[in-house]
Amino acid sequence: MLYPGNGKPLFIQLKDTILQKISEGEYKGGDKLPSERELSEMYGISRVTVRQTLNELVKDGVLVKKQGKGNYVAIKVIDHKLDSLMGFVEEFAIKQMKCEVVVRKQEYVVAPPEVCAAMHIEQDFKMLMIIRQIYVDGKTLGIDYTYLPMNVAYLLEGLDFHNDIVYPVLEKNGYKITTADQAITAETPTLEEAALLNQKVTTPVLAIQRVTYVEGDRAIMFNRTVYLADRYRYTLTLKRYHTTF
Question: In the 3-class helix/strand/coil scheme, how is the chain assigned residue by residue?
């Protein structure tokens, strides 16, 4: 219940209440808010006041209005700056975001043609494949497919792949990671990816293909990571070099 006589307009009181519920996690990114009628009954105020509040929150970018569906808490977009080579758990730890990784599959497979081509290895090459689902702040963010050659994979036997510890372990075992080639494309998920993401196959995703190299320009790992496009984006700073024509 809101109180008309406390010195604050009712729509401001409702706005503060909704913001507090979002801050405390009662309403999370992507959650649908109660309808205008439900909020009106919950707080004992008119639907006109509720509508004014919701419109203000949409204007502020806190809510997203979906025609015919209602109002949803805006999903926080994660920015990744393209200036460093790190794993996703390390990245989210730096951003002070809670990241959870669930291993969906871990087995030895014949490397797919695209992996062989990217790593410049022979067809029918056997590799360790790990499929991991990435959650940030309790919501699915993406899927990661990791492929490692068998002569490297044995170093990781017995490790808990729920943590993104591949780079540090390889470095501790004498592999000096130097560079990675990375390509970013706008795609839609495969049937398997859509099922893991709990999304439609028409959902926009960012697909990142990365080949990691060690000293001697040797490819040591292949990754395909698929992020939901409305929750993740890459940023970079461009520098102009002045030339004389």
Answer: CCCHHHCCCHHHHHHHHHHHHHHCCCCCCCCECCCHHHHHHHHCCCHHHHHHHHHHHHHCCCEEEECCCEEEECCCCEEEECCCCCCHHHHHHHCCCCEEEEEEEEEEEECCHHHHHHHCCCCCCEEEEEEEEEEECCEEEEEEEEEEEHHHHHHHCCCCCCCCCHHHHHHHCCCCEEEEEEEEEEECCCHHHHHHHCCCCCCCEEEEEEEEEECCCEEEEEEEEEEECCCEEEECCCCCCCCCC
d(CA 14, CA 5): 14
What tokens appear for 121 in the block? Answer: 């290895």
Domain 78-235 has CATH 3.40.1410.10: yes
**Each residue's pLDDT tens digit, 163-186:** 657 888 888 888 999 999 999 999
Q: 0.85 exceeded by the pTM?
A: no
| Ranges of each domain in the chain | 10-73, 78-235
What's the CATH fold of domain 10-73?
A: Arc Repressor Mutant, subunit A (1.10.10)
Round to whole Å and give the CA distance between 170 and 177.
8
**143-163 pLDDT, tens digit each:** 999 999 998 888 777 777 766
